[in-house]
Amino acid sequence: MQISGKSAIQELIDKLGKDIILTTKEELIPYMKDASYIKGKMPLAVCLPENADQISSILKICNKFKINVTARSGGTSLTGSSVESFDGIIISTMNLNRLLELDLSSRYVVCEPGVRIDILNAELKKHNFFYPPDPASSRASTIGGSLSTNAGGLRAVRYGATKEWVLGMEVVLPTGEIIRTGEYTLKRSAGYDLTALMIGSEGTLGIITKAILKIEPLPETTAKIMGFYRDILSVGKSMDTIKSQGITPIIAEFMDLPTINSIKKAMGIEVPAYTQYLLMVDIDSAPEALERKLASAKDIMGKFSEDVIVIRDQKRMDEIYAARKGAYSALLEQRDNSNQLIVIGDVIVPSSQLADALGQIEGYARTDGLKTTLFGHIGDGNIHANIFMDNTEEGRKKMAKLQMDIARVAIRHRGSVSAEHGIGTEKNELLYEEYKERNSLYTLEVMRLIKKAFDPNNILNRGKIFYEPD
Amino acid sequence: MQISGKSAIQELIDKLGKDIILTTKEELIPYMKDASYIKGKMPLAVCLPENADQISSILKICNKFKINVTARSGGTSLTGSSVESFDGIIISTMNLNRLLELDLSSRYVVCEPGVRIDILNAELKKHNFFYPPDPASSRASTIGGSLSTNAGGLRAVRYGATKEWVLGMEVVLPTGEIIRTGEYTLKRSAGYDLTALMIGSEGTLGIITKAILKIEPLPETTAKIMGFYRDILSVGKSMDTIKSQGITPIIAEFMDLPTINSIKKAMGIEVPAYTQYLLMVDIDSAPEALERKLASAKDIMGKFSEDVIVIRDQKRMDEIYAARKGAYSALLEQRDNSNQLIVIGDVIVPSSQLADALGQIEGYARTDGLKTTLFGHIGDGNIHANIFMDNTEEGRKKMAKLQMDIARVAIRHRGSVSAEHGIGTEKNELLYEEYKERNSLYTLEVMRLIKKAFDPNNILNRGKIFYEPD
């Protein structure tokens, strides 16, 4: 690999020029990390192309030399999917960062993969529109990465995950061909849905160089209900009841006491002394109907909690939204020492299973003896269990056991081991477990067949999704 | 083919029993037609399995003998995708017709492919929920067929097409393996989205034996605005303006005068004498805000039309909805003779392109000299041009030219040659044209690679989507 690696890098430089190929150690080190606890290998080079043609040239060379390639944009992956697992190069798409077109009537925006989600939404807001998927990392994360992981976020309870918001793409295949998938239209029935196949494929099938995204008018008004709870079962039951009565919040988040404490100041709220859990439910509505809709949700929450308050002030709501989005970063402050790492879990169950599943997850977090905090997008059943892990072999083992225990709770409750973060190199085993438990391991085989059809030399983001020994 | 065909049928009978294998001519003839003008070949046999295991057995036998297999449920395809194009058998999934589970909180229903859409919705209505995709054929069409073609329908302007409403599936692959895709959860990021890949694949990749469908609470109230227009450009401009001002109707349909005339009685409306086109826009809302929302849309329509009326009575609205759904059948009455066939076109363009595209389509319909009527789900840009075709070689040629002319209008306006009916055997050439014009023929190659990975012997619904000479 090293020798062909060197010739490949030389050919890349010859073809594309030194300026967009980084090769010195200091330049490469930052690309060994993403937002997860996983450390990648030092890449042989990092390419910074500016267009699809350059990416095509890079992939043709790498395919010829069978050099691994990992695509990376914002680098906010929480499962190690944007770092190299083997010897190989990284292609950063951060220089493809233009908003190309906006069509309000047709409800689409066209942009490149390096556009950060908050930047896109700041532009759309000028027109009273928005792009709904909003991973907590939206300040830093990009369209490219969020498409590649089918990112969810706070508003997925209402608007669904990323897959529901992509109409088409331009993609460079590992063999260098540039293809178009999908169209500028809101629906289409014209052959296989390659757009959908690319979403959540974590850079293993192709590199996205352009995306046609669906946009939505901003909701007219919203207000936030906060309920304070003594126990987690009541939180789960509240959500289950709200959903089965036909109420669909625009946001529904829960968090445990350690999480509340870490962002209480930023949220600027008083928390009753008995509180163990907080449930926040945002309701959107035409202004004329807001109070009636709030009352329905508030009544339900009031049956399971002692105190329920309503916040109507937009600025206060924005602050709380921002504080919640910063919860993962805030938890870093609560580590026992700076060597400790936080593993952010990401399982999901159907709403009706929430109470039972949350109870069991809380139980495992207690009995496995690792400091763990819970929060998540409870409206769609997404639970993040954040495990504080000692960075030792013993610590990793304990973490892996708790993570598997929680994954099994999700699987037993008809859920999945990954809701919105993807598989990366972190969850290959958990994914295998999910399909094994479902008696459907052949599903993974079919995925491998597709991978092989796209990428016969297995150069794209090798080691991600599928377990592969070095 | 004939000899191996015979041995294969014998093996099917030996394995599954005579009762579920039809082989006499009288039994087979009905399976040579679907709802389109296309006539299929007489199948060698029709299998009526009752579960996935039986389908797996059938596919294993057919794969061994390399016998073509076409899956069929309601048989309402408008592009010939549910009839045999070669020598082969048909598997009807109409005996897999159970509603298996309903979970309101988690917002899903589990059902088998033979369930008719209206039957499903009648059940869901009892709980104030519904399954949004509503092809005009929903009385007869099934979950299996509508998933296989990514069906749209009247409500797709608000709720999107079928692909946005499927969480998971059980699928029998052409090689006989039974796999599960997706999960019971509202989002997931766990490997390739095989569920999405199956949707719209028209039975070429596998046979769906179970589906987990997302459901939605019924809208609180709706009302219908009807605008009468002198010209089609004004219809297009109305829709474009409504959408760009952030209004998303729950239904938005247009129709030309011949279509109006064919369903006027069923709709029970008075039509001003100058009328050439009708635009119907349904607005849904919380009851408190309905009048305000109606006024916004009505104002816009009033700028482009002379008369705009509002219908608030639910029974009247239901009648009009049913009449519109019957438009295709009603047009059959307007044929010059019973040998004439109607080819229902199905292109789509982005909203902002509607006025211009509709104008051009109307122009071609006039100059190509074939009786043609226009209607469609204009809210999402979907235009059905219904061509009255003489069933002669000359007639077919003229029809094919007009269909290609209209397809090219759609392609030039950033649209697609198929919105919601699929490709079948009718549109292989149009699909090729679309990718050729986009300079992306390799997209079709990638689809072929996927087909090969799933179906190495090319036994499933051969000849559909991809052009293949006999």
Number of strands of chain A: 19
The poorly predicted ranges of chain A are none
How many helical stretches of chain A?
16
Oligomer: homodimer
CATH class categorisation of the largest domain in chain A: Alpha Beta
Summed up, the domain count of chain A is: 4
Structural class, from helix and strand content of chain A?
A: alpha+beta
Mean pLDDT of chain A: 95
User: Gyration radius of chain A, to the nearest Å?
Assistant: 22 Å
In angstroms, what separates the terminal alpha carbons of chain A?
12 Å
Helical content class of chain A: 25-40%
Could you tell me the strand content of chain A as a percent range? 15-25%
CATH 2nd-level architecture of the largest domain in chain A = 2-Layer Sandwich
Quote the CATH topology of the largest domain in chain A: Uridine Diphospho-n-acetylenolpyruvylglucosamine Reductase, domain 3
Which sheet architecture does the biggest sheet of chain A show? 8 strands, antiparallel
Shape of chain A: globular
Largest interface in this structure? A-B, 95 and 95 residues
Organism (chains A, B): Ferroplasma acidarmanus Fer1
GO molecular function (chains A, B): FAD binding; oxidoreductase activity
Protein name (chains A, B): FAD-binding PCMH-type domain-containing protein
InterPro entries (chains A, B): FAD-bd_oxidored_4_C, FAD-bd_PCMH, FAD-bd_PCMH-like_sf, FAD-bd_PCMH_sub2, FAD-linked_Oxase-like_C, FAD-linked_OxidoTrans_Type4, Oxid_FAD_bind_N, Vanillyl_alc_oxidase_C-sub2
